[in-house]
Amino acid sequence: MLLAKTFRSRTFRLALMAIGGFGAIVLSLLFFVYWSTTSYVLSRSDHAIAGEGAVLRAAYDRGGRAALETAIKTRMAERVFDGGLYLLADSDFVPLGGNLDRWPQNLSGAAGWETIDLPNGAHIASYRVEISTLPDRSHLLVGRNAEDLHAFTRKIEAALAFALFLIALLAGVVSVLVTRRTVGRIESINATSRAIMERGLAARIRLRGIDDEWDELAKNLNSMLDRIETLMHEIREVTDNVAHDLRTPLARIRGRLEKASGRPRKAEADQNLIEDVIADLDDVLRIFSSLMRISQIESADRTAGFAIVDLAAIARDVVELFDAAAEEKGIKLSVAGDPCVVVTGDRDLLFDAASNLVDNAIKHGKRDGFVTVTVRADENAAIVAVSDNGPGIPAEEFPHIFRRFYRLERSRCTPGNGLGLSLVAAVAHLHRARIDLKDNRPGLTFRLIIPTEGAI
Q: How confident is the model over 125-182, as pLDDT tens digits?
């Protein structure tokens, strides 16, 4: 099945095309080398033959046919022209001199260059010849054995054929190997996808440990699956918590209405019932309002509305807002730090985030203790810190407290719905900020660290 997918793969066709293009370039280069080399060798041979013919025609010009015959005999005897072929024939192609006993049948008397095959011992040899017609209408043939040239040409042609075969073989093998590797990795991802669809999000793509682009893709997909699994877990947890938090006020409403339906109407009792039902419904509406606000912050791009804001001024407004609530518990609420710390952001959202941190510190802090809001500018960042001296949070709970509806008190009897810190996390993410928790011993310090590179 994997082999069939390999041959059907587009990667296989692309690999063949790439190697085919490379092969065409290599073959073109080899053909150019073949053509230029053979042309050079042939021109050298023709130049030598032309030179020998010029020497013989010069002898004819000096002393006529007799001088030419003598020159041919002398040059053959002295072997001046190695492997030379000579033939002088009259106007009827009857041999008059040279080392050929007859005029080649396939040659005419016209002047020019030809390649002919002649017996040479036990085999047929190729010769490159020049034919010229003399003034007395006799014909002169001067040539040379071209077997070396043809042997060289055959070797070049064999090399070209072998190169073509090797490129074709290489194209097939490399294409199959590359495509098989690609298809194998894709099939591994597909198999994991099928396992996830059939059995849930537990499966992960196997890494090969070679840190190539496929391992990087697998890591990213596995990280995405981890995130999806976390979100699914959070959705289930949120659903359970929503059901739990809504069940209590709705059950109280139903119980009160049921109790009221079985007793005589009394204006004062009915008014109290209405006020209690409204209070319970307000709790339900607050839960949905908080959820919708967090969703809006997380899903909408609100950075277009960012402006220059003063965190120190926001902190002072938050302290002023919660001063009465802190006073009821005997908590000393104060603000400290730099008088002006400027960042680029959404003032309303930053105010909500700081308000939730202060509200949590007051609710869960120590009675007659303190809550301090500190704002200061650090290198490339602005820091809003909310500290208290209450019971604090166990370190193992730090990663969980920003989840929606997450509460340290499992009985969920204290006021609140566990959405305040989720809103803080959403605002921090929108502002590319980081939240840092530190044990205050006693108590806890929340730090919202906002980068200031984007400040205008």
A: 788 888 888 888 888 999 888 777 777 778 888 887 888 888 778 777 777 777 777 7
Quote the CA–CA distance of 267 and 260 in Å, as a whole number: 12
Report yes or no on whether pTM surpasses 0.90. no
> What percentage of the chain exceeds 70 in pLDDT?
84
- Segment 367-372 long-range contacts (CB within 8 Å, at least 24 positions apart): 367/329, 367/330, 367/331, 368/329, 368/330, 368/331, 369/330, 369/331, 369/332, 369/443, 370/331, 370/332, 370/333, 370/334, 371/326, 371/331, 371/332, 371/333, 371/334, 372/333, 372/334, 372/335, 372/336
pLDDT digits over 75-106, tens only?
888 877 777 888 888 888 888 888 888 888 77
Q: Record the tokens describing residue 72, joined without a space.
A: 């041919």
Return all residues near 111 (Cβ < 8 A) that are at least 6 apart.
Answer: 131, 132, 133
Contact 176, 6 (CB under 8 A): yes
How far apart are alpha carbons 111 and 108 in whole angstroms? 8
The encoded tokens of residue 391 equal: 């019971």
DSSP 77-141: HHT-STTEEEEEE-TT--EEEES-SS--TT--SSSEEEEEEEEETTEEEEEEEEEEE-TTS-EEE
Paired with 332 in beta bridges are 370
* Model pLDDT for residues 206-217, shown as the tens digit of each residue: 887 777 777 888
Q: End-to-end distance of the chain based on CA atoms, in angstroms?
A: 60
Report the C-alpha gap between 248 and 311 in whole angstroms: 38
| Residue 234 phi, psi (nearest 5) | -65, -35
Angle (deg, nearest 10), helices 420-430 and 267-299: 30
- Give me the count of residues in the chain: 456
Closest CA to 143 of 44, 242, 256, 52: 52
Distance between CA 444 and CA 252 in Å, rounded?
35
* 71 in Cβ contact with 59 (< 8 Å): yes
CB atoms within 10 A of CB 286: 12
Rounded Cα gap, residues 97 and 82, in angstroms: 18
CB 404 within 8 A of CB 298: no
Q: Among 249, 216, 170, which Cα is nearest to 417's?
A: 249
Asked if 184 contacts 2 with a C-beta cutoff of 8 angstroms, the reply is: yes
CB distance 334 to 326 below 8 Å: no
Query: How many helices (DSSP H) and strands (DSSP E) are in the chain?
Result: 8, 12
- Asked whether residue 408 carries a pLDDT value surpassing 80, the answer given is no
Q: What is the mean pLDDT of the chain?
A: 79
